[in-house]
């Protein structure tokens, strides 16, 4: 079956395209941009999608997702995580290794990829661990995981505290031209902190995690990347200090890229409110100045990508005292409308926003995705940026519902998600 997407506004930053047109998909690939559509419209083998008033862009790419399988299938499985991605407009997702067992060897990588092939409905790219068991001590089987299909390494969820181990990892990955993805956090500075250290934590009587906990490690990792010449990617940037350090490092020519989550550019630590565990994540929601700084970082190119850090946790796990709840919130099904808010507020153009969710994250990990170039696999999202929606956690496709955005009225409705020329979601 071929698909003709008719009359939409095609925005593809990878090719500098922004204009009204048609997209023809054949045999799973982008075939052409036909000038006229008449000859396809009566053809029973062509499904015609009317995209008038909608945006047609490359399928979204999320380079920071926790799929939880193997080991934590009560929170999410590869199948439900992919369904959640498709519902959010994502056609490619990158999954972090903090599963059980940890993805620190080729057999776990192969298991994830097999499951993704048989049960997943979007493209799945695994990240391997930097160290065995994410314990920060001995390097994991990075070469074998790369051969098996890992596109980068990270101990996400856990920082690599030992600088010498980080140095070895950065030296080692260069053989495969993949980056080290850093969960930049000084565990000692974070201590038993559960939210941002500041006025709000004091009022609530909760132990804080200072911004310095992130800044110190971003600084360390940039220094080690400079020493080794390695590619470094900083995950979930949350502080003004990190943005400053990354900006300066990029200026010096350090091979550093970075991402920011929608929750860090939309919310501040005020969202913790009355101990809402759905506003608890790591790094924590920060203050107003930090929020402004990450938005500025997105604007000026210091931050390359918007990534969700989709971190599903079950209702039971989150329905406990704030101190005891696990860190993390789901994000795949709210990322697009939250990102569109940046456009509405005039912080980014729609083209910039789409780039931060398509070609730019793809480039960070050399995924070869995030484009509508002729001949490429047809991964496409069609969405209405103006349609009003109300976030309803009960309607999430994810197994978990831990979102602080439940009930929010936003704009941006995903109409179709297409992966390899197949419609995997229509809403
Ligand atoms: O909030 C978070 N949750 N931050 C992380 O780094 C890990 C993640 C998780 O795995 O739940």
Task: Summarize the structure in short.
By secondary structure, the protein is an alpha/beta fold. The chain folds into two domains: 2-56 and 376-426, Urease, subunit C, domain 1, CATH 2.30.40; 61-364, TIM Barrel (Alpha-Beta Barrel). The chain is built from 15 helices and 18 strands.
List the helices and strands and how they pair.
Layout (H helix, E strand, L loop, with lengths): L1 E11 L4 E10 L2 E4 L5 H4 L4 E5 L4 E4 L1 E6 L12 H10 L2 E6 L10 H14 L3 E4 L15 H7 L4 E2 L8 H11 L6 E3 L4 H4 L4 E2 L2 H6 L3 E2 L1 H18 L3 E3 L5 H13 L3 E5 L1 H5 L21 H13 L4 E2 L8 H4 L16 H10 L5 H7 L2 H6 L15 E11 L18 E11 L2 E5 L1
Parallel strand pairs: 1-4, 1-5, 6-7, 7-8, 9-10, 10-13, 11-12, 13-14, 14-15
Antiparallel strand pairs: 1-2, 2-3, 5-16, 16-17, 17-18
Helix pairs in contact: 3-4, 5-8, 8-9, 9-11
Bound molecules: (4S)-2,6-dioxohexahydropyrimidine-4-carboxylic acid.
(4S)-2,6-dioxohexahydropyrimidine-4-carboxylic acid (DOR) binds next to loops.
């Amino acid at each position: 079956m071929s698909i003709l997407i008719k009359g939409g506004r095609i925005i593809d930053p990878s090719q500098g395209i922004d204009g009204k047109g048609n997209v023809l998909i054949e045999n799973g690939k982008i075939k052409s941009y036909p000038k006229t559509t008449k000859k396809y419209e009566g053809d029973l083998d062509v499904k015609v999608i009317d995209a008038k008033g909608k945006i047609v862009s490359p399928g979204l790419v999320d380079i920071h997702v926790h799929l939880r399988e193997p080991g934590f299938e009560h929170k999410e499985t590869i199948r439900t995580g992919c369904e959640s991605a498709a519902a959010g407009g994502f056609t490619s997702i990158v999954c972090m290794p903090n599963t059980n067992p940890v993805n620190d060897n080729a057999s776990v990588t192969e298991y994830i990829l097999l499951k993704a092939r048989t049960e997943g409905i979007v493209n799945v790219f695994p990240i391997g661990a930097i160290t065995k068991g994410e314990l920060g001590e001995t390097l994991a089987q990075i070469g074998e995981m790369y051969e098996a299909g890992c596109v980068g390494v990270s101990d996400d969820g856990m920082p690599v505290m030992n600088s010498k181990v980080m140095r070895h990892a950065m030296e080692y990955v260069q053989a495969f031209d993949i980056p080290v993805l850093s969960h930049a956090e000084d565990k000692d500075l974070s201590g038993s902190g559960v939210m941002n250290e500041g006025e709000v934590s004091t009022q609530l009587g909760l132990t804080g995690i200072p911004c310095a906990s992130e800044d110190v490690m971003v600084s360390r990792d940039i220094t080690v990347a400079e020493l080794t010449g390695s590619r470094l990617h900083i995950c979930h940037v949350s502080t003004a200090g990190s943005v400053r350090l990354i900006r300066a490092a990029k200026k010096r020519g350090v091979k550093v890229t970075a991402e920011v989550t929608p929750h860090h550019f939309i919310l501040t630590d005020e969202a913790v409110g009355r101990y809402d565990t759905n506003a608890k994540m790591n790094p924590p929601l920060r203050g107003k100045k930090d929020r402004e700084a990450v938005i500025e970082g997105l604007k000026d190119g210091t931050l390359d990508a918007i990534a969700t850090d989709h971190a599903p946790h079950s209702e039971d796990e989150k329905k406990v005292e704030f101190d005891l709840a696990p860190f993390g919130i789901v994000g795949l099904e709210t990322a697009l409308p939250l990102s569109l808010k940046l456009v509405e507020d005039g912080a980014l153009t729609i083209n910039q926003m789409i780039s931060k969710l398509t070609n730019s994250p793809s480039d960070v990990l050399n995924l070869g995705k995030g484009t509508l170039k002729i001949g490429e696999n047809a991964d496409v999202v069609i969405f209405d940026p103006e349609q009003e929606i109300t976030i309803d956690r009960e309607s999430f496709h994810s197994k978990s519902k831990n979102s602080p955005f439940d009930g929010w009225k936003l704009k941006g409705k995903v109409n179709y998600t297409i992966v390899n020329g197949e419609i995997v979601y229509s809403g």
